[in-house]
């Protein structure tokens, strides 16, 4: 066999496996050629090359064999070639031998499942997708007690898991063999990144629950996919046995049977239930197994079995079937009691836990009714016709109202008694969303907050919008954009308070795809970072030319590109500094009027007095997140686009037109469950969408037409009113009225610095006439009485009139 043939049929990975050597995740291992306490030997399994950074040993797979065998008895190159040829002849070409599994007894299976589930329980605390899923399901309380739930990250057989073992390679081989034997792994075609045999992981990225036998040992696993968008939701490990959460205690008197494991898990962290009842999960409407029946039969003190199945036809049918089966199996139950909880139509235990207070379960349990078994018709008649329950739920809903509003009976709760999809199908969607925005703590500024919400929701669409919210320090702008960002799924939000010059160019491709980026203070961005943000908004791509040195130190030019697609919310106190960015974004100004300040203080007083239900606010945020997850990406056709004519003096009209049309399109997308579609699947905008878009954008359009910055314009308009009032009192013409900064200070809630800055800018723009000298103090007169705001609003109103 020629040397090339040996190298072709024998890889370095196979040589390492032959000597029971296993590289870690960084492709490093302790060097076998010197006394190595820390891993210093680096291997490149793709190029079949190794090098020790400590002793200098290096070479290919043949050299490795010679070096390794020479530790005890020195061998020549020729002897090393013979050894490699023998190894190559025993190996299939370019493949690694499959791990040979051997049957193991039940005790070893239990021991293996216990060990694997322990890795799953550790992973659930470190996995954002797992914690997000539990949060969506309102099951985060399960994490308070270790061992109730786990997460399969798919890494339990990776090499890095075995670094602390005395023999990592053997330990990993054993886990892989057991994984194959019991169905947690299956062989995949091809090799892994490390050049080894690749494996498929059963139940990858799933929430995992353990099934236990009578000795409380794990004998099975139940997987539930953490991604709700997948069509397949859950499955069991092959040959799973056991019950969830465990066998009922022998002294059990009252036993609740749930339809599914996730329903059972939903009840486990409610002390009022676990202290008074035992809970046992069935495995679906056909999942009351012989093991369940045997466990129930052995409960000598059992007085009552309570069926708490889903509120649908399948759940009611299963209740009737199992009740009949249990009465035949355990005759005394006819006397002791078979009862059922009347679950509201279309609900299950977990959906109730997500939407309502936990006390609803105690109310439903208290109102449970006896299951009568003479016939299924009799069962449905005697247990208060389930359809009547659904009607009562929709019309009166006494249980829901009692527990959702138990602390604040006067607060509006319609957002908790409706599902997200139904909410999106209701009329006046924008108005309803705006109401919810007020309930989460965004006080006043109805137009601004709704426009920011519309902007934020474009992060997952093909066209993205961006808002710059300008106002003085302490005006509440950062609070508002943070509250809006909390309505977006947290995994889709990036918060930035400071950005260095070139950092945005160094992100990996895709890290800014379909994200909401929150710049909490644009003033913290360097000039080059602002330019990068500008390019990200305009081109949806960052491109930079940079030099990279190769291994020999030679410099080489390279173009690095970062694709982006994001919406953004930004806050600033210096809007005038971002002239180049302003044409690309929606500019909003904080309402800093006395009336708004008064509203904010009144709200804060309610917070301090404990009158604001923070739990309800959090439920509202979660609810709006779920609504966003239901939105799909569509192309929008706007038959009224030709009626959208912006005023002639608007700044950068083509860009402003695109922004306005983007807002209108997003309003259509928010209403996608209420809009008609073309045969090609495009959403058709209605006149109402165009009007709402223009009304939302009115203030921003006016700001773009104005040479004065937003907060300066607000000050100037208030100053004109102040002078007019003063003129009336003095019975003079308004042009004759003089005032000083002290007059302004007495009337406006502004600091000396702000007043001086505003007066300076208005004087520079020739809106004010400055009179006097520095040694005697200055007084001012309004030199230019414009009617800008009224004229601008009239222009926009004409455009709106065309649409009516």
TrEMBL record:
Enzyme class: transferase
Family matches, as InterPro entries: DNA_primase_core_N_sf (IPR037068), DNA_primase_Znf_CHC2 (IPR036977), DnaG_primase (IPR050219), P-loop_NTPase (IPR027417), TOPRIM_DnaG_bac (IPR034151), TOPRIM_dom (IPR006171), Znf_CHC2 (IPR002694)
Domain Toprim: 253-331
Keywords on record: DNA replication, DNA-directed RNA polymerase, Metal-binding, Nucleotidyltransferase, Primosome, Transcription, Transferase, Zinc, Zinc-finger
Domain of life: Bacteria
One Gene Ontology term from the biological process aspect of the record: DNA replication, synthesis of primer
EC number: 2.7.7.-
Record Pfam families: Toprim_2, Zn_ribbon_DnaG
Location of the Zinc finger CHC2-type domain: 30-85
SMART domains the UniProt entry points to: TOPRIM (SM00493), ZnF_CHCC (SM00400)
GO CC, alphabetical: cytoplasm; DNA-directed RNA polymerase complex; primosome complex
GO MF annotation terms: DNA binding; DNA-directed RNA polymerase activity; zinc ion binding
Protein name as it appears in the record: DNA primase
Gene: dnaG_2
